[in-house]
Amino acid sequence: MRVFIAINLENSVKKYIKNIQEYLKENSKKGSFSNEDNFHITLKFIGEIEQSDIEDLCCAIDETCYSFRNFKISLNTLGFFSNYNKSTAWVGVNESKELKLIYSKLEKNTQKYGFSNSRQKFTPHITIARQIELKKSREEIKNDILAKCEIHVKSIELMESKREGSRLIYLPIYTSKLK
What we know:
Blueprint: E1 2-8, H1 11-26, E2 28-33, E3 40-48, H2 54-65, E4 71-83, E5 86-93, H3 97-112, E6 125-134, H4 138-144, E7 150-153, E8 155-164, E9 167-177
Antiparallel strand pairs: 1-3, 1-8, 2-6, 4-5, 4-7, 5-6, 8-9
Helix pairs in contact: 2-3
């Protein structure tokens, strides 16, 4: 099974991001747009694991959550990752001391259970579209969108990523609440 560790979003935040995504759709020639139910902030991508690895991942998540209280973060801007001539669009999250600390603690705790550390710099974001081609420049679109919304972080989840037909679905396997 393919898994990752994430902060799931409240429905009101997902709806807010969906409005940003709709604007992006209107200003795109084509693209693959994320399902609203799949909006989340990835803390750590794990990849393929065996069923027997789930318990260790749950322990690492619990050990991380035990050290933190609920906190708030906020969205900031629309951004793009590029891969050749295709782009991935995302909504960014403002810098947060708590979020950085949770990420660092999670890295240490998962490594303790034998999972490798992430190779990429942690850039908290919510992916809203992949392989998009825009009708106007990125800068024009970014200037049109002001992403201001507060996110209440109350838990961390172990998520499974799977395909059902052509649809990608993210399912929570385990939830650990912050204290």
